[in-house]
Design goal:
The complex is a heterodimer of chains A (about 55) and B (about 700). Chain A has about 55 residues and is mostly helical. Chain A has helices spanning about 5-10, 10-35, 40-45. With about 700 residues, chain B is mostly helical. Chain B is globular, with a radius of gyration of 26 Å. Classes of the chains: A mainly alpha (about 55), B mainly alpha (about 700).
């Protein structure tokens, strides 16, 4: 019976939509993170725990 | 926000609250480890419950897990968050009063858990056992914590939020969502409630919660702590800040989907099981990305392991994180789950994470913080070294013995002879075989506890030699990052706490909605021909006793469609069979056999004898005796209220049955008591809890029209 679950799961576009959201989001994050111009910022950011005066 | 220029301000961090949380961590850790050791010993030698219902395994195990997760890990997280956030945000916590309310509120919640769980007040939903008044208290205290934290972010002097802060934000938001959604319940009395979800809905929501309690209570906050304390201890920046960003988003986005891997081969719809499995496998990537990022932070600093031995704890913690996040996805593969699920392999897996990752990271953090907060040196590095090696040996003994026990038992359960019959048809044969490994596990736990006690002594001596009065040290801070003129989107995002939090919420909402929403339409999965009858009033009373005694801790009620399982227990469980089950009782461990089709398998007297002394009917059984069930009276009167709540929730009880629930129950109780009596059991049992429990056990698997 439980295999028949998909028969009732008529919102198939949700599956495709989910995949699309995920994939685009992931690509977006990668592009965003690995922008060349961001190096200076990350060099600064990674120092934050070390520069709290303690 | 407007810039205020480079004005240098003198501020004081609130380290008092950090000290409080550290001491609370140590106290509750002691309790959690001790409960764990006692539970382990009881499995090796059942009389160690000392015939006391309050510390019998079914009630002790929830006490242990709640103490370990919410008391030990919880206080450790709060200590680290309060310490690191103030420094990363260059601001004192928003309100000392809220900090104190958070601290004392949380300790009160733990205390109330420590009282109610041994008394048997439990919802039986794993890691969410606490009853509704405590659920409300948890919500209130969590909101206090969130308010304090987000207001600190608002008044911060450093515009850019370091990656650790992101992990804290994701934790606070997600835990709130998980707790509230999983705790929607209707009270019956002050300490009894029924969840609004039933059967597969309840299972889905519970394991969406349960797995994400691991993800967002035992993983994301600890990763935040790792991203702060590992660089601090090694005095080097994190290996790759870019990787930490990918790690964060991938992890929070994927983790929330993984819950259904706890329900593989159950009657949960197949598509949800497959989603859970696939997303669990995807978790390999971000988890290992994080682990590698943490370990490589120490690249070029490995010599510090000699001079700063506390770093050993961080290295071991990250290694255990890597191991358990490798094993988790592995166990989520359906064919591996078929072997490993319900066995001690899972217990081993969980403890490599809890003891190795959460425990060792916390210990490392405490060794780092205590000398700094109390302005002194650590009392003994030698003791720290010894703690590390003894603790590590303990974790390894624990883990290895449980994996071996789990795989051994899993293989014995499925072993089939050439003629197609079970090689080990008696469940007890598979239990007796692994009892020696239960002793090894207890030794492992004992070593872990010993190491921990050495740490307590070390911390105690460190505090003792610390200067008695230390004036709070002022810190000079200036507002940074607010006056940067930039068009870069990432800078904007990291600078906007609110927008960031909303995005993190959306990341966890997508998976939650897609998985839970379709499951809530239960009617789509229920076949009208297979609808079951609801429990009789007495059976319902018995079911609540089953829940109270924590039977679900050792017995599942879910037969998987696997050949050896059907041979052993009967036809696979169906969606309909648990459609009125509030809460569901599918269980997650089979220390004893599955009970889904137990009804009518044995006579009433068998059950009576079994509950009084399991060894009377099953020689060598490791189940404790339950003599108090024959002494305590069933509360018949409350059944009217219970049935009416069930009826409100859609269970088809007739008005007459609800109005006279107690009379119906007493009548059925008389019949069972008379049967017992005629077969030689003592007289006068009709009012006792044992009768209600027998009624329930005899109804298991008997309610459906199609078996």
């Amino acid at each position: 019976m439980k295999q028949e679950g998909l028969k009732f799961f008529t919102d198939t576009h949700l599956t495709a939509l989910g995949l699309l959201i995920f994939f685009l989001f992931f690509i977006g994050v990668l592009l965003w993170v690995y922008r060349k111009s961001s190096s200076t910022l990350y060099t600064k950011m990674e120092q934050m725990p070390l520069k709290d005066g303690e | 926000m407007k810039t205020t220029g480079n004005l240098i301000e003198k501020i004081y961090y609130d380290d008092d609250i950090v000290k409080k949380f550290i001491l609370a961590t140590l106290i509750w850790a002691g309790a959690a480890f001790l409960f764990g050791l006692l539970a382990a010993l009881q499995l090796a030698y059942w009389p160690l419950n000392a015939n006391m219902e309050w510390i019998t395994f079914g009630r002790l195990r929830p006490l242990h897990t709640n103490a370990a997760i919410f008391a030990f890990a919880g206080n450790a997280i709060f200590a680290g968050i309060y310490h690191s956030s103030q420094r990363l945000l260059k601001a004192r916590m928003f309100s000392d009063l809220l900090s104190k309310m958070h601290f004392w509120g949380w300790q009160l919640i733990i205390l109330s858990a420590a009282i109610t769980l041994p008394l048997g007040y439990s919802q039986s939903k794993e890691y969410a056992e606490l009853e509704w008044p405590i659920d409300i208290a948890i919500t209130v205290v969590w909101v206090i914590f969130a308010l304090n934290f987000f207001m600190t972010i608002r008044k911060r002097r450093e515009k850019h939020m370091y990656v650790a802060i992101w992990f804290y934000i994701a934790t606070i938001i997600t835990v709130a969502v998980l707790h509230i959604i999983n705790s929607i319940e209707i009270p019956v009395s002050l300490f009894k409630s029924y969840p609004v979800y039933a059967g597969i809905q309840d299972a889905m929501v519970q394991w969406w919660y349960g797995h994400n309690a691991v993800a967002f209570f035992l993983t994301t906050p600890f990763l935040g702590l790792m991203y702060y304390y590992v660089p601090k201890a090694a005095n080097r920046p994190v290996y790759s800040y870019r990787l930490s960003i990918v790690h964060f988003w991938a992890l929070v986005f994927i983790y929330i989907w993984a819950g259904p891997h706890h329900l593989l081969y159950t009657s949960l719809p197949e598509w949800a099981q497959t989603l859970g499995m696939i997303f669990s496998i995807m978790l390999w990537a971000p988890s290992w990305g994080g682990m590698i990022n943490g370990l490589l932070t120490l690249k070029g600093s490995w010599h510090l392991l000699r001079t700063e031995p506390l770093i050993k704890f961080f290295v071991a913690a990250l290694t255990f994180y890597g191991m358990s996040t490798f094993e988790g996805p592995l166990l989520s593969i359906k064919s591996v789950s078929a072997l490993g699920h319900y066995t001690d392999w899972i217990i081993g897996h969980v403890h490599s994470g809890a003891l190795g990752w959460n425990g060792f990271l916390t210990f490392g953090m405490i060794y780092y913080l205590v000398p700094r907060l109390w302005k002194t040196e650590l009392y003994s590095k030698k003791l720290l070294e010894n703690h590390f090696w003894i603790g590590l040996t303990g974790v390894l003994l624990y883990y290895i013995s449980m994996v071996v026990a789990g795989i051994t038992q899993g293989l014995m359960w499925r072993a089939v002879d050439a003629d197609g019959s079970l090689t080990y048809p008696d469940f007890i044969e598979t239990v007796v075989r692994i009892v020696p490994l239960y002793w090894v596990r207890a030794v492992g736990g004992f070593l872990f506890l010993t190491g921990f006690l050495m740490m307590c002594y070390n911390v105690f001596k460190t505090i003792q030699k610390a200067p008695k009065t230390v004036e709070a040290k002022e810190v000079l801070v200036e507002r940074t990052g607010f006056d940067e003129v930039t068009k870069e989107t990432h800078r904007k995002l990291e600078g906007m706490g609110m927008v960031f939090s909303v995005l993190a919420f959306l990341a966890i909402a997508v998976g939650s909605v897609i998985e839970i929403y379709p499951t809530l339409s239960l009617h789509k999965y229920v076949s009208p021909n297979n609808i079951v009858d609801p429990y009789t009033p007495l059976e319902l009373a018995g079911r609540d006793i089953y829940i109270k005694e924590g039977c679900y801790v050792c017995h599942s009620q879910q037969i998987r469609p696997i050949a050896s399982e059907v041979l052993r227990y009967g036809n696979a469980s169906t969606v309909e069979e648990s459609m009125y089950d509030r809460p569901f009782q599918w269980g997650s461990k089979r220390t004893g056999p599955d009970l889904a089709r137990l009804g009518k398998k044995y006579p009433n007297l068998w059950h009576y004898s079994h509950m009084m002394d399991p060894r009377a009917v099953t020689p060598k059984s490791i189940m404790p005796n339950y003599p108090w069930l024959a002494e305590k009276d069933t509360d018949f009167l409350v059944l009217r209220k219970k049935l009416s709540v069930m009826s409100e929730l859609g269970v088809p009880y007739e008005q007459d049955v609800i109005a006279n629930a107690d009379i119906h129950a007493q009548k059925q109780a008389q019949e069972i008591a008379a049967d017992l009596e005629s077969n030689g059991a003592p007289k006068g049992l009709a009012k006792k809890e044992i009768i209600a429990l027998i009624a329930y056990l005899q109804s298991l698997g008997q309610k459906g029209k199609v078996q």
